[in-house]
């Protein structure tokens, strides 16, 4: 795995307020350092302020770490603020909806002043105006934030009724418990580099899917800003239609975020890394069930078992394309936060399985009329 290129300093500028100052690159390798620094803060800490002015790059796994940190903070009844966001951080916050639950300020002085004005670390004033910011000079590209998704041209047989015009969700907008599920396969015997693996994955992504599900994206290598329609195989021959946005891409990874109606509210990062001289391909999913119904199916294993089989199949197909056969898929599931977000129970209105089932008679009638 890549070595962390980040430094986290801990300060307490006032009673009840802790500052985590991050410098360097916020990637998945920073997890241990970030959580260890957070754990040093005393029980009397009411507000955690992330000073991100020293960050010069953030990728999708780094944004996922901030979502996991938010869950830890909320479980302790604390409040999370952030300041000093550059252009990449601002896009990451907006695309993942962190900006809706984390108070964002231009700088540390403004954040602390707002807390003093409120007279209590548990409440604050309105976020100060953000500076124009600077483009991140290192790392990949974040997509432009969008309000609703516009699908690319898709074949007539594609099911899109529940996917057009949907809004982005992601883990922050999910209902169920927060999980990180990872799947990795050793590309033993292949001389491919992580960058070469990801390039192949971007160029042929849909071809690695199991045949019962379809990925309808642009006919080009995947890049940040792409929108794709997913037709997922459901029970009893049901096709669940949903859409994703590629929110981030660099030479070693790319990341999808879900939209309304999907089984999960999640971010899924597809990447590759080197470990002990071998290259591994990996799927890293940070997710919550999107609504109460899907949470029940996940707890019963009705949804998780097909999800696990799906990504194991994708990784084995990718490995086979690269000439690697017979390697097992390493799988890990980590429960980050058991809390249910009841304010998001309303997501059930967009439940993709229910809406797709209701649309089946319409598709059948249209098919009869086309004969």
Q: Which class of the largest domain in CATH terms? A: Alpha Beta
Sheet-strand content, in percent, reads: 25-35%
How many discrete structural domains?
Answer: 2
Order of helices and strands: EEHEHEHEHEEHEEEEEEHHEH
Radius of gyration: 21 Å
Instruction: Report the major sheet.
Output: 9 strands, antiparallel
Number of helices: 8
Oligomer: single chain
Got a strand count? Answer: 14
Question: Could you explain how this protein is built, in words?
Answer:
With 371 residues, the protein is of the alpha+beta class. The chain has 2 domains: 6-139, Transcription Regulator spoIIAA; 171-370, Alpha-D-Glucose-1,6-Bisphosphate, Chain A, domain 4, CATH 3.30.530.20. It contains 8 helices and 14 strands. The protein has helices spanning 31-39, 60-75, 87-96, 108-118, 194-204, 292-299, 304-321, 352-370; strands at 6-14, 17-26, 47-58, 79-83, 103-105, 141-142, 178-186, 214-216, 227-233, 239-250, 253-258, 264-275, 278-289, 329-337. The strands form 2 sheets. Strands 6, 7, 8, 9, 10, 11, 12, 13 and 14 form a 9-stranded antiparallel sheet that branches. It has a 5-stranded mixed sheet with strand order 1-2-3-4-5. Helix 3 (87-96) links the parallel strand 4 (79-83) and strand 5 (103-105). The protein is globular. The protein starts with 5 loop residues before the first strand and ends with a helix. 46% of the residues are buried.
């Amino acid at each position: 795995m890549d070595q962390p290129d980040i430094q986290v300093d801990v300060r307490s500028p006032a009673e009840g307020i802790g500052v985590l100052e991050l410098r360097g690159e916020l990637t998945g390798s920073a997890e241990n350092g970030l959580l260890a620094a957070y754990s040093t803060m005393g029980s009397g800490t009411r507000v955690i302020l992330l000073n991100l002015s020293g960050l010069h790059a953030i990728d999708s796994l780094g944004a996922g770490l901030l979502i996991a940190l938010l869950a830890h903070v909320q479980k302790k009844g604390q409040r999370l603020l952030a300041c000093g966001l550059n252009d990449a951080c601002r896009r990451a916050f907006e695309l993942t909806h962190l900006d809706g639950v984390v108070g964002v300020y231009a700088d540390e002085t403004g954040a602390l002043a707002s807390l003093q004005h409120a007279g209590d670390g548990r409440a604050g004033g309105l976020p100060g105006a953000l500076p124009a910011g600077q483009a991140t000079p290192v790392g990949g590209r974040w997509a432009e934030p969008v309000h609703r998704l516009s699908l690319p041209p898709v074949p007539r047989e594609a099911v899109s009724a529940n996917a057009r015009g949907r809004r982005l969700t992601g883990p922050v907008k999910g209902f169920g418990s927060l999980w990180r599920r990872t799947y990795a396969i050793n590309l033993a015997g292949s001389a491919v580099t992580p960058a070469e693996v990801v390039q192949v994955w971007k160029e042929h992504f849909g071809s690695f899917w199991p045949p019962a599900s379809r990925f309808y994206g642009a006919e080009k290598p995947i890049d940040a800003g792409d929108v794709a329609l997913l037709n997922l195989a459901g029970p009893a021959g049901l096709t669940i239609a949903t859409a994703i946005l590629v929110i981030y891409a660099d030479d070693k990874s790319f990341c999808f975020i879900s939209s309304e109606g999907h089984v999960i509210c999640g971010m899924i990062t597809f990447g590759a890394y080197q470990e002990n001289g071998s290259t591994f391909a990996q799927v890293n999913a940070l997710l919550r069930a999107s609504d109460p119904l899907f949470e029940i199916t996940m707890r019963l294993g009705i949804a998780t078992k097909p999800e696990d089989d799906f990504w194991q199949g994708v990784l084995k197909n990718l490995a086979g394309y690269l000439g690697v056969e017979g390697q097992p898929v390493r799988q890990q599931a980590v429960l980050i936060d058991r809390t249910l977000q009841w304010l998001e129970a309303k997501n059930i209105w967009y439940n993709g399985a229910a809406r797709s089932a209701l649309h089946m008679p319409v598709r059948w009638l249209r098919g009869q009329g086309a004969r």
